[in-house]
Design goal:
The chain is of the alpha/beta class and 333 residues long. It contains nine helices and 15 strands.
Length: 333
Amino acid sequence: MKTSDINYKALVVSENEGTYVQSIQELNTNSLPEGDVLIRVHYSSLNYKDALSATGNKGVTRKYPHTPGIDASGEVVESDSLQFKTGDKVIVSGYDLGMNTPGGFGRYIRVPSSWVVRLPEELSLKEAMVIGTAGFTAGISITRLSELVKPSDGKIIVTGATGGVGSVALSILSRLGYQTVAVSGKENEFAYLESLGAGEIILRSDFLNLEKKPILSAKYAGGIDAVGGPILENILKSLLPLGAVTTCGSVSSTELNMSVFPFILRGISLIGISAQNYPMKLRTTLWNRLANEWKPEHLMSIYNEIMLQELPDAIQLILKGKLKGRTLVNLTL
């Protein structure tokens, strides 16, 4: 690949004696790591993992200074890969992008072609990042859940329902004919959840205050959990026989403190979800599905758009659980 010499803006997180400082800096594409595809980023999105990277979580990012952003959609500027040519519109999400490789919170990224997905014709670059890793994770969750649970089997409970994964999951599940129950701590957002297709809404505090028993009354055929901890425990205890729940987050806790009774008495399944290294063949298939028959009907009503300079404030909000839906980062201006 020929060496570009392009200056660009990026959010850079720097470490100073244990303190992490976020600032907008001017960088040059010559400083980007090796890779056979250089991409001009049009849009990124803010995910919880980005906020962890931006605040010094060494389990996500080991070395600083660093540019987070695990999502990017944009246009190929240079390519040494036969798969992609200049001008191609593409998506990059997962793998090491934004973790230890400079990510989508910079106007340019350079990555291996094996990380790159061609943008489906039915999807715009903006729509791709409204979906982003959160929506893609919801898509994987529904793919796995639908293998075991059909719409006729009963209700699907969705936690973290106003968040990125939950919002997209509710919309897709509703489109596929599932009955949904949303769990949320934001009572003022119930109308939003109903607009996404939630047939029933439970306050998070009420769901947490269920009886402390090894097993609870069976109510749900399945669940999509993005929270973990006691909420996931209560879902597992409340599943119908042969029910299943997917889990992709640990905002509440990384631990499960429960007995195996729901598993061995009701034959339920717990399915872990990871979008980071999802196989490329399946990744491409799912992006095409999300662009077509699974495209959320409410996609363009579930995002808030911000500029690069607004990211530091948004990062603090997502860490406090104060954002809803998807937060789109516009890097075109």
